[in-house]
Design a protein that fits this description.
58 residues
């Protein structure tokens, strides 16, 4: 029984590693990271600009 489970887990790991190494998956993850960083930096830039405008207004 343990040998069959080991074969199953080994096959599952090979299948997952193959699908993770495909170019589409890597490209999707990379674009998601770039999009997240861009969104975060733009939000921080807007917060600094708003703070600067409020300070300038007073």
């Amino acid at each position: 029984m343990a040998e069959g489970r080991n074969w199953f887990i080994g096959g599952m790991l090979l299948s997952c590693s193959y699908s993770l190494l495909q170019a589409d998956v890597i490209k999707t993850v990379l674009l998601a990271v770039i999009g997240t960083l861009t969104s975060y930096l733009f939000g921080r830039l807007l917060a600094v600009a708003a703070k600067w405008l409020r300070k300038k207004k007073d």
